[in-house]
Amino acid sequence: MALKTINPTNTKAWSKLQAHFKTIEDKHLNELFENHSNRVNEMTIRWDDFYVDFSKHRISNETLDLLIELANEVDLKDAMDKYFNGDVINKTEGREVLHTALRCPEKSSVLVNGENVMPEIFEVKHKIKNFSNKVIHGELQSYTGQAFTDVVNIGIGGSDLGPAMVVDALAFYKNQLTTHFVSNVDGDHVNEVIKNLNPETTLFVIVSKTFTTQETLSNANTIRSWFLKHAPKEAVSKHFVAVSTNIEKVKDFGIDEANIFPMWNWVGGRFSLWSAVGLSISLAVGYENFDKLLLGANKMDSHFKTAEFDKNIPVITGLLSVWYNNFFHAESEAVIPYSQYLNQFATYLQQGIMESNGKSVDRNGDKINYQTGTIIWGEPGTNSQHAFFQLIHQGTKLIPAEFIGFAKSLHGNQDHQDKLMSNFFAQTEALMNGKTETEVIQELKAQGLSEDQIKSLTPFKVFEGNKPTTTFLINQLTPESLGKLIAMYEHKIFVQGIIWNIFSYDQFGVELGKQLATTILKEIESNNITGAHDASTQQLLDYYKSVK
Ligand code: F6P
């Protein structure tokens, strides 16, 4: 059954939210706290090893009630049932959206066209497990009879960002294999990676759902040519494996069928790390840890399915995002993990969030007259504090931020951990409370500054505060908690897309540029710039031709 197509701005809740917004937009968070004694408890969700505090948001209980009313009016529950039950909710591509099935227990049943897909999911999972174990334990060997030392993942977008982010995030759990990622069609990328590799001990995993992606095929071809300069042709089958839905194309590339790890069209690229796309993860940290990642995601799926909306982490975070995006007209959201391991987390989320919800036509096919997809950005704290936090604290833009921290560090250096976490807590406190003029004056007096100096400096030292944040305090960064966190964002994306009445699971917006690049490449290669371009592009191409 198709998703409902309710324009959120036509709901009663939307009109109520608009009126309510006028009563709250000028209120300071401090005032909201003063007038709401049990605020922190009411606006904190404790679930498993997650502690999620959303009390530092510019909302009241009434805001929450109205946002939940909005979710009910667009029938979020019905959409969730369709999502988990494998209805064709990716209507524009005629596909189910079933990455959640990939982390279901073996005994469950998930139907696609009336057929339970769990047996094939587990067949592939067993294949991943066997293969990873054999590579890690040196049982599967290179063409020269050596154990593999390096793994190179060749893919882009969802076939790169998820595995790359997770391998980085779980570096603590890594085994002896060194994992590399080649994604960009920029030849300098692939050459930088291969320049120090030993072809005799390197395994290549080509990941492409379609196996037609220019970047991935170019990199795979370049790597195979380089490999064949050192190794005989028969060695290819020992060193190249592929993950794809397009078995024929993979075979055409010269990869043995036994070395193909299949995936399915009902798994979107940006949600595919749970499938065989995660093979590099399983190789890097072992299948047991890969499975724990999936277990964590499955736990978050259950939470999302069963928790009441007011205690449901993906629902609340999705609704808050709508609140800022559509009522405060905030354009971006920052994600700040206080863990260097999550260095690539925001980059990973950019594809998930922006490729999914960057849409301007609704599910009726009509042009949208309200804001959709948020711009996502971020870097780990404390590094980001020394980079862009100035703008969040004292700039003119409203940037809701999600702070993600872990109570226990992995290496156990408590001195560093306490310093890290004191920054984590201090930043959200500072963002909320700010610093008043009176406080600034007192501080400057205490420093012994003259009246004149105090007068001229004060305006620059005031912090308005009132900057909204969510705090995710998680026990420890483990494969399981990471799985929960990633799945939380997947469901947040879903909630937003349902409210905005858009199709979150297609990505036609990436195609036009690809088409034009194909035309331009032909012109560049044939040294014949046709003149069919706009004046600016034409001149750029002519200039490139003259200088390259
Ligand atoms: O960027 C567009 C896109 O289709 C993504 O959605 C996808 O993750 C990526 O390209 C890679 O596609 P493939 O896995 O088919 O090579």
Characterize the structure shown:
The structure is a single chain. The protein is of the alpha/beta class and 548 residues long. The chain folds into three domains: 232 residues, Glucose-6-phosphate isomerase like protein, domain 1 (Rossmann fold, 3-Layer(aba) Sandwich); 183 residues, Rossmann fold; 39 residues, Phosphoglucose isomerase, C-terminal domain. It contains 22 helices and 13 strands. Helix 7 runs antiparallel to helix 15, helix 12 crosses helix 13 and helix 18 crosses helix 19. The model has no long low-confidence stretch (mean pLDDT 97). 6-O-phosphono-beta-D-fructofuranose binds next to loops.
The count of helical stretches stands at 22
Mean pLDDT: 97
Enumerate the spans where pLDDT stays under 50 for 5 or more consecutive residues.
Answer: none
Could you estimate the helical fraction of the residues in percent?
40-55%
The first-to-last residue Cα distance is 54 Å
**How many runs of DSSP E, i.e. beta strands?**
13
- Predict the CATH topology of the largest domain: Rossmann fold
Bound ligand species: 6-O-phosphono-beta-D-fructofuranose
How many domains? The number is 3
Secondary structure layout plus pairing:
Blueprint: H1 12-24, H2 29-34, H3 39-42, E1 44-47, E2 50-53, H4 61-73, H5 76-85, E3 111-112, E4 115-116, H6 118-136, E5 150-154, H7 161-169, E6 178-182, H8 187-194, E7 202-207, H9 214-230, H10 236-239, E8 240-244, H11 247-253, E9 260-262, H12 279-285, H13 287-306, H14 313-326, E10 332-337, H15 345-357, E11 375-377, H16 389-394, E12 401-408, H17 414-433, H18 437-446, H19 451-461, E13 469-476, H20 479-500, H21 511-525, H22 535-547
Bound molecules: 6-O-phosphono-beta-D-fructofuranose.
Residues 156-159, 208-210, 213, 216, 269-270, 355, 507, 510 line the site of 6-O-phosphono-beta-D-fructofuranose.
